[in-house]
Amino acid sequence: MSDFVVHNQLLSDCAIVGDADLCRVLLMNDARFPWLILVPRISGLRDFHEVPSEHRPSLFVEIESASNAVKELIDADKINVAALGNQVPQLHVHVIGRLTNDVAWPGPVWGVGTSVSYDSEVQQETIAFVGAAMGLLS
Amino acid sequence: MSDFVVHNQLLSDCAIVGDADLCRVLLMNDARFPWLILVPRISGLRDFHEVPSEHRPSLFVEIESASNAVKELIDADKINVAALGNQVPQLHVHVIGRLTNDVAWPGPVWGVGTSVSYDSEVQQETIAFVGAAMGLLS
User: Fold this and answer.
1) Complex ipTM above 0.90?
2) What is the pTM of this model?
3) Distance (Å, whole) CA A38 – CA A83
4) Phi and psi (nearest 5°) for B10?
5) CB-based contacts of A65: which residues, under 8 Å, 6+ apart?
6) Angle at which helices A56-74 and A120-134 pack, to 10 degrees?
7) Which of A38, A62, B30, B48 is least enclosed by beta carbons within 10 angstroms?
8) How many CB pairs under 8 A join A and B?
9) How far apart are CA A130 and CA B61, in angstroms?
């Protein structure tokens, strides 16, 4: 995993929360939704099914842990989990907490309206909350 | 799993392809994209992370098998995998083959334009292809 780097576009859109066993965890800089992105720290992955068998249990556990964190953040009604990667080829898994009255409901969040940057204090609090909830190394 | 039934909305939008070990596999009736939906045959699941640990390896294998099938169907450039469930609460995983010149690229497919029903012969051929590629029981 030594040559692993997060794609520039993800770094530009997100703040780094920390590392779980397999994934680097990012917080999308869009205060409208609690939106985490998990990037497996393995170079060269594009599609979800390319995750090697030995790492799949960790990915699932980390999706669960991220789901629970975003659920707690806003008492989410639903969690959206997706590996799309049409715009950024590096495999990354979106974990997004949804409310039935959020601005995109019941549609998906991608491409809806304009993202709203976090207030810097709220962003730091959110990062701290997610890092603690997921037990991440920062 | 005895009281498992596929949600009516999914049955209305899709044709049934067959059963893998864990999931019932459906083909979305939209000829614009090779679009499979995997529904774990366990009652009461809503979010992706609710899949019990002992069934997670099967889900991953079936996502892989579905991904390979849609990839072969159109020599897809990218596979989109997603569990959204904002409109249908029953857990279902979308596996969609994408081309860089399809009508929704590079956005997600949900809510884009109007679905195009399969010609019935093409639909049957597609179901047969996917069933064989995934080794499904029909």
Assistant:
1) yes
2) 0.97
3) 10
4) -65, -40
5) A20, A133, A134, A135
6) 130
7) B30
8) 94
9) 29
